[in-house]
Amino acid sequence: MSDRILGGVSVAVAASMAWFARSYAAPISYEPVGPRAFPLLLAALMAIVGAWLLIRPTLRGNALQGVRLKSLALSALAILVYAGLFQLLGFPLATALMAVPVGMAFGGGWLQSLAGGIGLGLGLFLLFDKLLDVVLPTGLLSVILGGR
User: Fold this and answer.
1) 69 pLDDT exceeds 70?
2) pLDDT mean over 43-58
3) pTM of the entire structure?
4) Label partner for 31 (CA 20 to 30 A): which of 7, 49, 56, 62?
5) CB neighbours (10 Å) of residue 140?
6) Spans of all domains in the chain
7) Closest Cα partner for 113 from 98, 91, 94?
8) Is 1 in a helix, a strand, or coil?
9) Are 17 and 42 in contact, with CB atoms under 8 Å apart?
10) Are 146 and 133 in contact (CB under 8 A)?
């Protein structure tokens, strides 16, 4: 039953996100996508996942049964540190460093987690910054990545 409640809340939050994001507009168009696209994309994804939680068949057992509380706490702490260091370190480096404890919390080795984090940080940076033209902070890597 808790999955269905979470699904209903997710759909409601997604609807409110979409409602508020519909009026986002930049006074000067400096990005081809604009400020409205990202919140609308997140709202759509949240609504799809929430609807899936509402209509999917009930699973037997607990989905988080194999996940230790220590792993979840470590992941939450890593994300909080990530948010605090995001501007200073920049997106690629902060993302790579955040992926190491999260990956290790869920069974990955430190080398695998570091490699995955570096790939994730650089890959997403190139996707957003170069392909979608969304400005992300480069932080300490501004000399290498063309600072902002």
Assistant:
1) yes
2) 84
3) 0.56
4) 49
5) 15
6) 2-55, 69-145
7) 98
8) coil
9) yes
10) no
